[in-house]
Amino acid sequence: GKTGKSVLCCGFPLSIFFIVINEFCERFSYYGMKAVLTLYFTRFLRWEDNFATAIYHTFVALCYLTPILGAIIADSWLGKFKTILYLSIVYAIGQAVLSVGSISELTGGSANNLAPNIALSMIGLILIALGTGGIKPCVSAFGGDQFEENQERQRGTFFSLFYLSINAGSLLSTLITPTLRASECGIHTKQECYPLAFGVPAILMAIALVVFIIGSKMYKKVKPQGNIMLEVSKCVGFAIKNRFRHRSKQFPKREHWLDWASDKYDKRLIAQTKMVLRVLFLYIPLPMFWAVFDQQGSRWTLQATAMNGDFGFQIQPDQMQIVNPILIVIMVPVVDSLVYPLIKKCKLNFTPLKKMTVGMFLGSLAFVAAALVQVQIDKTYPVFPAAGQAQIKLINVGESPATVQFQPQLDSVYIAPKKETGYMTFEASELQSLNITSALLNKTEPLDLQEGERYTLVFKRDITNISSNLIWDNITSKPENGKSLVRFINNLPNTVNITMGDTDFGELDPLSVTNYSVVPKPDGSYTINASMPQTACTTVSKKFGYGSVYTISLDYCIDNELSITYFEDIAPNTVHMAWQIPQYFLLTCAEVLFSVTGLEFSYSQAPSNMKSVLQAGWLLTVAVGNIIVLIVAGASTIDKQWAEYVLFAALLLLVCIIFAIMASFYTYIDPNEIEAQFDKEEKKDQDDKEKEAEVDSRM
């Protein structure tokens, strides 16, 4: 094939810089899109949490299955350069299709017909999975191809740079795209800006493609060598078939089942395949680690949506994943230059397989930490009525205490002035009416509650009678996206006009209640204004907090000063997002011990020409891990999220123990020695043949 002229720049082939920039843009594009994906499913496509989790992990699994395809195409057919080129085009189209699919105006801005959005999004994601997966095994190897044999040191530096550009890309995009998503945009309706959050990654993918093409004259393009993966598979297949054919007693046994392939394949390939299979056997338990690891983008992001992200500035729930790349950038050098040398000093032999076992154990701990955080969140999480039930809460806005008796003969409650009960749950069919008694007056209020709904009864005792108002709350879930809602009760003697900040609640008669309205910034405070024909009163609200719902009664107006009472319908997100940091820290330590070590170990245990087979096996474990989550999320009847976390922690701990046992039986080898042995034998055979030829020629 044509090879480009190698232009050098600071001792590196110049083409390398194009490859590193290309990788940065591609990773930015991928991680940026992936960061907002879960919330796109739950908030824009309105999918239920479990379904969104399942589709997210299906997508990730696809992204890790397609590399095997990419490697085969590159090695057997197109070569790395063309594979990267064509699949990058597919990838860029996929990103563009996804961002078009997230435009809410596709169907004329109606939220009920999402079919075109779903169709385009799925097509986009499939193209992205083909693209990102297909080029994944090619890019780093293509970079390695650019170096000459004598540039070992530079090649090493390149791989470090390459890894750095991956993390820099994911770090920046995880910071930027959720911010873009949280911004509002739209022609008809203002809502979260997914087209922008997906559009920026699409543009970066286009840039990655252009950068890659610009460098094309300089690249060293190695001809496709044929795919070793197919060779190995054929060899294994033949061995099994041959072994099956000779299963009767009369045939002598062979030392290893793979030796049955020696009738057709050479000894060296068989020896190399044996080394690979020993490593692949150890891979069997690994998917469980990835099942846990990849939930950062699904379950943990959904967990963060019920948390308080106020760090002095507001952090989006999908931005918490950024903790992982930040910690990786810090931890990898620290562990390599500090932790491992210390362990060595203590005379401990911390072998790669031991590191991986500890990594799995830390991954299991991370999920225990996630479960503990979930328990804290559940404590403040509202309970909504189940099937057949309704909930009612009573607010006494008057000056005198009252007792309310639920009919027929259920409970009675005492309510002090300016106080409320929490939501009380009843079987909707059983509750017929309630009776309010306050200082010798009493009133019966008939109730006809619909099941699954929440109601509020507002009442007060005046001098001569009890007035009351039953309101349907029309709210059956905690406000999504961390929003906050507020509504007002007019407890003043005359009709008022209410505004809060820029929100106008309109005119309100005595003892009436407004609809809920969204608080624009839940961490800000607003001026509440109640105006009557003659006079106006104001007061400044408190900070409501993310995810909260409040009812506010306007009680008095004295000297233009408004006096109000807050009734909390749904508590704000009180558990701080910072509590997710321990689980992210544990999981990142696990990743450093497990993932970084795992690949190095694999490569050290097999001949260099088998690296692609091992990489394929490694990526396969990630894909299978994501399929495990998909099955658990789909099949689990666990309704408590913390229990699902504990289940995963327990499964990983179990697998960790199995892996430790398997690892203790593994003996480390040096593939180079075995290779050298073969070289020596081949040379000896060669010499023997030459000697024979000499003898023959003399005769």
From TrEMBL:
- Transmembrane residues, as ranges? 7-31, 51-72, 84-103, 115-135, 156-176, 196-215, 275-293, 322-343, 355-375, 616-638, 645-669
Membrane topology category: Multi-pass membrane protein
Superkingdom in the source lineage: Eukaryota
Per the record, which residues fall in region Disordered? 679-699
> Which InterPro entries does the annotation name?
MFS_trans_sf, Oligopep_transport, POT_fam, PTR2_symporter_CS
Report the subcellular localization.
Answer: Apical cell membrane; Membrane
| Entries under Pfam families matching the protein | PTR2
GO biological process entries: protein transport
Q: Name one GO cellular component term.
A: apical plasma membrane
Chaperone found in the keyword field: no
Give GO terms: molecular function aspect only. oligopeptide transmembrane transporter activity; symporter activity
Entry keywords, A to Z: Cell membrane, Glycoprotein, Membrane, Peptide transport, Protein transport, Symport, Transmembrane, Transmembrane helix, Transport
Which ranges form a coiled coil? none
Task: Please write the reaction equations for the catalytic activity of this protein.
Answer: L-alanyl-L-leucyl-L-alanine(out) + H(+)(out) = L-alanyl-L-leucyl-L-alanine(in) + H(+)(in); L-aspartyl-glycine(out) + 2 H(+)(out) = L-aspartyl-glycine(in) + 2 H(+)(in); glycyl-L-leucine(out) + H(+)(out) = glycyl-L-leucine(in) + H(+)(in); glycylglycyl-L-isoleucine(out) + H(+)(out) = glycylglycyl-L-isoleucine(in) + H(+)(in)
The protein's job, in short, is: Electrogenic proton-coupled amino-acid transporter that transports oligopeptides of 2 to 4 amino acids with a preference for dipeptides. Transports neutral and monovalently charged peptides with a proton to peptide stoichiometry of 1:1 or 2:1. Primarily responsible for the absorption of dietary di- and tripeptides from the small intestinal lumen. Mediates transepithelial transport of muramyl and N-formylated bacterial dipeptides contributing to recognition of pathogenic bacteria by the mucosal immune system.
Give the family, as the similarity comment puts it: Belongs to the major facilitator superfamily. Proton-dependent oligopeptide transporter (POT/PTR) (TC 2.A.17) family.
Q: How does this polypeptide assemble, per the annotation?
A: Interacts (via extracellular domain region) with trypsin.
User: What name has this protein been given in UniProt?
Assistant: Solute carrier family 15 member 1
Lineage summary: Eukaryota, Metazoa, Chordata, Craniata, Vertebrata
